[in-house]
Design a protein that fits this description.
Elements: H1 13-24, H2 30-42, H3 52-58, H4 63-76, H5 78-82, H6 91-94, H7 99-110, H8 122-132, H9 139-148, H10 153-156
Helix pairs in contact: 1-2, 2-4, 3-4
Amino acid sequence: MARPKTYIIKLSDDERATLQKTIKNKNTCKTVLKRCQILLELDQEQGAGLTHAQIAHSYAVCKSTVANVVRSYMKNGITDIIRYNISPNSAAARRKVDGRMEAHIIQIACGPVPDGHAHWTLRLLEERLRMELDTPIGREAIRQALKKMNFDLTSVNTGVSHQKKTRNL
């Protein structure tokens, strides 16, 4: 037997309009989009009257996500639903290298090699970036940026291709 609902959600017309506007916005992330859809489904006046389990199944989330949306709405209101808060401890918040930085790293790596060297190394890139940029970037961040772009330092300036050679039998 299911427990009775602890919270009854009745959205105002302004709140419904805000949720609909957020859903129609193309820049809305998936997390906020699903939160808005879940909250609209939970509305007593215009919702379908589905249970938390049915809503969770239809939006491909777990039941605790639906309960968290309800709790968040009841505690903080609609603004907490339509805003995506990134934890300062998440990988995205700690990331030093963004798209512009990656482009700058690739631009330097494709450029001319310093005198006395056959190709770029991570240490050489780190030294060059330290001179050109305000914030220092470590070798590991540079390596991850190059790996993400599927960029090979050894094949850029030497013209050597590192593809597997197959033998015909």
